Amino acid sequence: MKKRKAIITLIIFFALLAGMIYTAVYGLGSSKSGAASDIKLGLDLAGGVSITYEVEGDEKPSAEDMSDTIYKLQKRVDQYSTEAHVYQEGDNRIDIEIPGVTDANAILEEMGKPGSLYFIRQTDKDGNQNYINSGSAYVLNGKTIDDLVKSGDAVLSGSDVSNAEAGYQNDSMNNQEIVVDLTFTEAGAKKFADATTKAYKAGESIGIYYDGSFISVPKVDAAITDGKAIITGESSIDEANNLASTIRIGGLKLELKELRSNVVGAQLGQNAIQSSLKAALIGFIVLVVFMISVYYIMGFAASLALCMYTALTIILLDAFDITLTLPGIAGIILSIGMAVDANVIIFARIREELKAGKSLKGAEEAGFHKALSAIIDGNVTTLIAAAVLGVTGTGSIKGFAQTLALGIFVSMFTALFITRILLDSFYELGIQNTKIYGVGKPHKKIRFLENSKFFIAGSLTFITIGIIAMIACQVKTGHPLNFNLEFLGGTSTTVTFNKDLSLDDVNNEVVPLIEDITGDSNVQAQKVAGSNQVIFKTRTLDLDERTKFTDTMKDKFSVDEKNITNESISSTISNEMQRNALIAIIITCGCILLYVWFRFKDIRFASGAVLALVHDVLVTTAFYAIFKLSVGSDFVACILTIVGYSINDTIVVFDRIRENLANKTDKDELITVADNSISETLSRSLFTSLTTFFMVLSLFIFGVSSIREFALPLMVGVICGTYSSIELASPIWYFMRHAADKKALKIKQDEKEAKKSKRSGKA
Among 113, 131, 155, where does a domain finish? Predict the structure, then answer.
């Protein structure tokens, strides 16, 4: 009976797997839902829409107003994609790049004209109507918006609104209704409280006026003093979302007009996707071969589960409408390597139980049970990082968080459920020879902690060299790291060629010439769809470099000088985004500290874990500084990946220390317990690192130049994360625990001596 059930289970599994693979490759229906080809791709892979706005008016806008406008526009375009970019061009222009869309007119229509949001009281001080219902809509009653602003009847402007979100609430009849929740600034809250108090007493409404028309005229049913308001009456959640978006963008300080809009091609070309897929396939094959050769039948089960993991991840990326950029692809490929981590933990435990003399079935049960806490704790800490980044992050950071969280949930599902189902089915089919499962070998006892001081000294030396390199870079360039144009801004040069060049032609023939002129290896090229125009983004070019650029285009490609235009552009990573990223990392470390403290009931475990994370971040940053690697948005994703990876490794070691402490005898020394725990988890730590390293190495060897720049520090991070978990996190815990035990022992001895002295005095 059990055998029959196992056969049915395997048939269902392979049918599901085949269905998932088919869906991931070909999709479902005419829309190809769930297919890899249906996933939204970022500007670097698929192109999108580029829109340029210009500030209205003759006066030059202040840097503060431009920065505020860019930040609020970034929030606005996040609805289209987390990978959308907003940056300044020249003194009074703002560029918006939205990936994965091709209809510029539709985007412009949905975006609307930023600015001009006002809240208008129904009547003026003389009782005259400021607006009236014309029958089809509300209109101003013979007054201009400037008149209402001067008279004070425009009680609030868009700058007084800090946020607007669509949602639901229960009405007086306890029925659910669609609403728009408004949150005002501190000054706006006071203004709104005064306005609603007067309107409520008079039984009047307050009109919300945007871009020349009323978008809502809600009646005031009560004085609102808490800085929040609700707009009702929307017929659908989409309508409410549009209204909320309109209000958010209406909070801009500057009036903007559309200057131009283009559909731009991918920055990297089709070759980038093909090389990434090639890297993924090669890395996957190496990973499968490694797992089967090391873990035999268990490795085979894990490989099948990994196939499901990959297919399911692709389907869910499309289902959740996540925009995928090249770093995102790298992250997915990396997560495949990390997905086997839970399986490795389980398999190591199963082999240990077999070595202890348990039956195969008993060893499997015990292996999954004992591995569960380490798997949950390791993934929860990484999920904490993803959650914090998702809430506080913007742009590519938020996209990274979404991808990371998705990978965590899918990997836990496939490791804890799918792999176990497969192993149970294999067992019931009669595959019960322990030789094809492998039996744990005696662990070689290594004195890790005795040598830890040398490793700590080595880490401090490397970090110090990195700090020196950063100081030198600061003196030379004004920046501690080799920041690229995503952080610093630069020059955008639009060239109209005499013929239509493909992006691959541009990257192979034109970009190398520009790199020679500028000495900048981070040149970005974008084609404008339907034209011969190509936009080149470089670091800021001086007059001499701009002249050489123009001369090269004239000599090599016969481009007329009038068809070459230059504009300065700001960074795509704003100060607010940098600050949010730093805050997110700090909050993440704090939350991980609290979680590990709560789970392990010991602040020393938590401190060791967080200090190891800080070490990994510092070492990776030092690597960037020493080798002068280009630092852009990928740097943030790289650091966050290392944080997630490193904490997972550390938790596994700490889990074993906690377990061994519970079984510790009085004769066992603390240092022996720590060394044994590290030795027992060493193979798991090394094997997990190897599987992850294989995937990243594949990216480095077969990926395009930009992805190689991402993969190189990641390889350093993988090695560093493994090393810190073994030689830093555990020794830090031991030194703190040993010091505490020594202090407690001294106190106990002092108390004994005091009692002894007291008794001697009485005698």
Answer: 113
